[in-house]
Amino acid sequence: MNATNQNSEFRTRNSEIIRVLLIEDSPGYAEIVKIMLDKIADARFDVVCARRLSEGLECLSTGEIDVVLLDLKLPDSRGIETFDRVYAQAPRVPVIVLTVTDNDEMALGAVKKGAQDYLVKEQVDVKLLVRAIRYAIERKRVEEDLKETNIFLRNILDSSSSISIISNDLEGKILFWNKGAENMFGYKAEEIVGRCKADILYPEDDEETQKTIAGIRSFIVSNKQEISCEVREVTKDGHTLWINLTCTPRLDEKGHVVGILGIGEDITVRKWTEEAWISSEARLRTIIQHDVDAIIIVDRKGIMRFINPAAEILFGRKREDLEGESFGFPVVPGEKAEIDIVRKGGGIAVAEMRTVETEWDKEPAYLVSVRDITDHKQTEEQLRGQALIFENIHDGIIVTDLEGNIIRWNPAAERMFGYYKNEVVRKAVGGLTTKIVKGTLHEGRWNGEMDFNRKDDTKGTCETTVIPLRDERDNITAVFGVFRDITEAKEIDRMKSELISNVSHELRTPLTTIKEGITLVFDGSLGHLNADQEAALAIAKQDIDRLARLINDLLDISKIEAGRMELKKSSVDISSLAEEVLFSFQNQAGKKHIQLKTRLKRTLPPLYIDPDKISQVLANLISNGIKFTPENGRITVGVKDKGKDVEISVADTGVGVSQDNITGLFDRFSQFSRVYGPGERGTGLGLAISKEIVEMHGGRIWVESEVGKGSTFTFSLSRLSQDEIFRAYLTNGLREAAEKNCPLSLVVVRMKNLEKIETGHTREKVFEILREIEGLIARTLRRKSDIVSRYKYGEIVIAILMDTAKKDAQSVKERIRQAIEAEMQEKRWPKDIEIFLGVVTYPDDVKDEVELINKILKGFWADEITGERAAQGGKDG
Amino acid sequence: MDKKRILVVDDEPNFVRVVQLRLEAAGYEVLVAFDGMQGVSTAHQEKPDLIILDIMMPAMHGHRVCEALKKSAKTWTIPIIYLTAKGSKEDEELAYKLGAEHFLTKPYDPQVLLETIKKALDPGAQLTKAEKGGS
Q1: A187 with A236: CB under 8 angstroms?
Q2: What is the domain-level CATH number for residue B40?
Q3: Each residue of A46-61: pLDDT tens digit?
Q4: Which chain B residues are closer than 8 Å to A548 by Cβ?
Q5: Is the ipTM of this complex over 0.90?
Q6: Structural domain of B38
Q7: How many domains does chain B have?
Q8: Neighbour-count burial for A686-697, b at 16+ CB within 10 Å, e otherwise
Q9: Which residue from B12, B89, B107 is facing A568, i.e. has the nearest CB?
Q10: Average pLDDT in chain A
């Protein structure tokens, strides 16, 4: 693991100054962002603010900016155009778009167009902001690097007009064909890409070439190394060419086992000269005179005897100056060598030299042909450079194809995941790659934290950025992922939360004792107090309560951070809950002569929520309200039906929050938001916890406020139907039962002849009875994990008993039956009401949810074993 | 009528002491034990009317104390109220599964504690319990 290295790397980067350009027309919000960024200890942010787009663009053109935070709505520009103009001005600077709603199409549009991220203004907190900024910078850097590399490579490939570069897959299908190849073979890229090379280029009669090509292929597949050879190929207009072919396993997109990159040089003339020199020296002279390669005839003493025009150009000197001079390079017939030639104007050309024996002026001599391969070399260097980065970078780099099969896997990835390259290449490794590919193809980019399993079964976490890789023709062919191991950092985070949790527990015990000690004296249980003593103890008590709240809040926050806060959801009548919580503040409000009012919606079906946690949210909002509302004010708790959601609001007539402070309100320890009135101090954690709780329920929380007039805090909760709630219970219960391998029983209570009864009584009466039955069952059940729910639009009342065998469920059923019978007698329910109770147990009676639902709805009641009539109470008496 | 006797099992002497003061002020007689073992043996010897039980204790863990008491013919009828700083969902569920009557967390509200004790000592509650035991 090299997590330590990465940490130190991270720190170095953190200590740099990050220049942020904030283009935002609200001075208040700009101030908040500044304050937030100032709070960061481990990084320094230099924030430049621009109120108008024009100012912002000016800043971008003059200053060096690391990241732009951009509001799309500005006085001088609106909408996506704002982003376009910033991007046009500084395409290399990462942009984070600020938006007001979570579903802003414009912001999403900007992200699609190249913005790195978007942030919802009200939801921005310090952690989120810093994280977004870091990610944006990092991501943009990776993207820019890759883009640059791609463009650079493309240029090199296309500029080598005398070298053909052909890339094909293992079947020989051509995937890429550069300008050099077009010149050499006469085929345009469009006519040949996608076709099979062998069918077109190799002469049908030339078995040797066919064999050579097959040999190259198997050599590359088994040895994964570069190989060169000479082959005969045919041009479009039917000429035969001799090509010196250098084949390398495909390094970038398809990996060495799936493709071959061929670099070809036309050596026809050289080949021909080698074969034909003897036949005619005169003809040889003509040929070499016109050859594109530099040809030098060197005699046995190493003296240059003949120089062709191409050689003059290569050496940058006249033939007259060179002839008679020593050649200066060792000449070995039949060998290829690479030589460096100093050009006349400076700079070094890399050339390949080939030598054959010949005869010149009737004397034995060497024919040396020299070809400038500088371009070719550069391409090679470039590829090698990339390979070096790939091999040595600390971050894991994985390239996969579109099915998620791994193509490349660098040594850092080996260290991180514990798998060697050969173990994973061409395989799709678990959720790792599937997740990457899906996300990336869908979003155009994927990044986030990911948990992974190492080969030795230990777990780790990494921060991941993945982008699609495009081939030479701009089609997405692969996916490229960078993985940074943050396991250790996460572990430290976890230990931190654990420490907070432990410390809080340790603090609680003595605090409990102190509190109880003082309370005992204070409430007179141990004797009478005089007024001063009582006052002194009251102060102590108040601050102990504050300390207790702070510890509780810290515990909550640490639970939330560690992802350990669990919701215990049940069906809850939100209006009653809100009322109950509000009236528990009666005393406190009374002291300040604050009126408590409700505006509730009584007819709402129950919500599926955690009543304790939602009470905590309500209590927090109400106590804040009381705290910030002057004497003779008013607190109103409202419940509104919003169709899909229910909105619960707590409105006060207090001091209000200024617009500038609204954004940071839900941050931890943000107590700057409201002016303090008299009364107890809060912990500064309440709203942050409330926000987390509401969001865990899938809702939202927000505030509207006017300074001096009051604030309204509102949160939304999803309104699931009763049946959906029951199904949710059932699904969860069955899953838990299956996991823990324990039984799950249901006691089902329904009226036998509901339709008939309804004609006799009003539906309200029937449902009142069903509600009473639900209440009765709730009181009969003992364990907290037991749940009472209603199903089929409330017609069926069902008790869900976790971890309860059939036998035990039968005795619970008996208790329920007795309770119902007693109630029937007492309340004198209509005589024609017949109630049936039944028990169904998983896995004894049913094996899945579908069967269970079927059993409840059908079959069950005709079933002789389970249906059992409750004695009709009023009948006899 | 005789004073009801309550056994408080907790390893924090200061805590035990304030609870004792609170309960005595409310008119109960209080017995104390400072670890799980002591708790079980005191319960067997003294047969208190109710037991207040902590979880994290030396010698014997609260859950094991509860289990032992609920399994013994001598002590299974004594209602047990958990009073602990370790208030996780799992602990609560386990406590009820082992047969505890109530589960309270520290710091406690004295009013709630006294009412819970009253409810647990209430003969009506005892009846439900007896009935449950019979089924």
Answers
A1: yes
A2: 3.40.50.2300
A3: 888 888 888 888 888 8
A4: 107
A5: no
A6: 5-131
A7: 1
A8: bbbbbbbbbeeb
A9: B89
A10: 77
